[in-house]
Design brief:
Blueprint: H1 2-22, E1 25-27, E2 30-35, E3 38-44, E4 47-49, H2 50-71, H3 79-85, E5 92-93, H4 96-111, H5 121-127, H6 141-148, E6 156-159, E7 163-166, H7 179-193, E8 199-203, E9 206-210, E10 219-224, E11 235-241, E12 243-250, E13 255-258, E14 261-264, E15 267-268, E16 273-274, E17 279-286, H8 289-302, H9 304-312, E18 318-324, E19 330-334, H10 338-342, E20 345-346
Antiparallel strand pairs: 1-4, 2-3, 3-8, 5-7, 6-7, 8-9, 9-12, 10-11, 11-20, 12-17, 13-14, 15-16, 17-18, 18-19
Helix pairs in contact: 2-7, 4-8, 7-8, 8-9
């Protein structure tokens, strides 16, 4: 009897110890919060010490606050807002990450033939899509022409000493098409540097992943079916990744509708007008989210024919266009390696 009692005590102590140790950990922690006018989500696979989770949350929040302090046009005291308000042509000192994002944006502007342009702030405000816009409306031709003269990526320079220089007064930046992706990468870097190997990071639908999900499988990223009807909430398909970033640009959530025509919030920098095409959305898979984010916007402007040709010239980049047919049906158009690289599973096999 004494031996049996001892065994019971030992088992009981082991259970108490196990439960106590387990309470020090969080299983598959999910960190969520608000940023950049949307939300963020950082999910880790496995058991993570509670103290580590708390520290990661503080680091993530601090990083996102700093990114907004540098690059948010919605913050009147941010570095980008200060630059936009300046009419000086002298070098304007900025933070190194901000300079790096602008430099990458200008590289994308050049390689896309101007389909991407970080200096569209005046036009976005004119259409009512920017932080300084007063009313969403389709501007008159004369207004577009006059405002377009204040834009142009060639009128902006980035110095190696983390400075910006504008060649004309009135030139203003809007990094909404690339800064969110940079924010996703920044959080991912924090997780990498902390030694985590299996994680998922998302800000407003832009995603970067590493490793496996809590079920030990590739991370599953849904691609939204492009409908302007908020009541329609379904997926076009699912991407499966263990490494890389996914970003989507579309015309179905943020737009002006006038006289039966839907004018996207995505403007063609070359015309100063909203993109009007059969493209409903573009999803890009790339090694990092900053590139995926900016490329998705550029490709939406290009359209499927020009865009897919452009993608094929870039290693480790794949894209899927969702294109509207004459009857409104959605068709999928892929770059040559998209399905292989992503394990894409379509909810509707209409690959044309």
């Amino acid at each position: 009897m004494a031996r049996k009692k001892i065994i019971q005590i030992v088992i009981g102590l082991a259970l108490v110890l196990a439960l106590g140790v387990k309470s020090l950990y969080v299983k598959h922690p999910v960190l969520i919060g608000k940023t950049m006018g949307t939300g963020y989500n950082a999910t880790l696979s496995g058991y993570v010490p509670r103290a580590t989770v708390k520290n990661l949350r503080q680091q993530i929040e601090g990083e996102l606050v700093e990114i907004n302090r540098q690059m948010s046009t919605w913050d009147p005291k941010s570095e980008i807002s200060s630059f936009n308000l300046s009419d000086e042509s002298e070098p304007f000192e900025i933070s190194a990450p901000f300079a790096m994002v602008v430099a990458r944006a200008l590289e994308l502007s050049e390689s896309s033939g101007g389909a991407f342009d970080p200096t569209l702030s005046p036009l976005l405000n004119l259409w009512g899509f920017g932080s300084g816009g007063e009313e969403r409306k389709v501007p008159a031709d004369a207004e577009i022409a006059a405002t377009k003269a204040l834009t142009g990526w060639r009128k902006l320079g980035v110095g190696v000493d983390s400075t910006l220089r504008k060649s004309i007064p009135g030139l203003a930046l809007d990094l909404g098409a690339i800064a969110k992706g940079y924010g996703v990468d920044a959080i991912g870097q924090l997780l990498d540097e902390a030694g985590h190997e299996n994680w998922f990071v998302e800000i407003g639908g832009e995603v970067v992943v590493r490793g496996l999900n809590p079920k030990g499988k590739p991370w599953r990223i849904g691609i939204q079916y492009p409908s302007s009807n908020p009541a329609v909430d379904k997926l076009q398909g699912i991407v499966n990744l263990t490494e890389g970033a996914v970003a989507t640009s579309g015309d179905y959530r943020n737009y002006i509708q006038q006289d039966g025509v839907l004018y996207s919030h995505i403007l063609d920098p070359r015309s100063g007008r909203a993109v009007l095409s059969d493209t409903a959305s573009v999803t890009v898979v790339a090694p990092n989210c900053m590139d995926a984010d900016g490329m998705a916007t550029a490709l939406f402007v290009m359209g499927a024919d020009e865009g897919l040709t452009w993608v094929e010239e870039r290693p480790k980049v794949e894209a899927m266009f969702l294109v509207r047919g004459a009857d409104g049906e959605i068709f999928e158009k892929f770059s040559s390696g998209f399905t292989t690289a992503t394990g894409y599973v379509s909810g509707k096999q209409t690959h044309k």
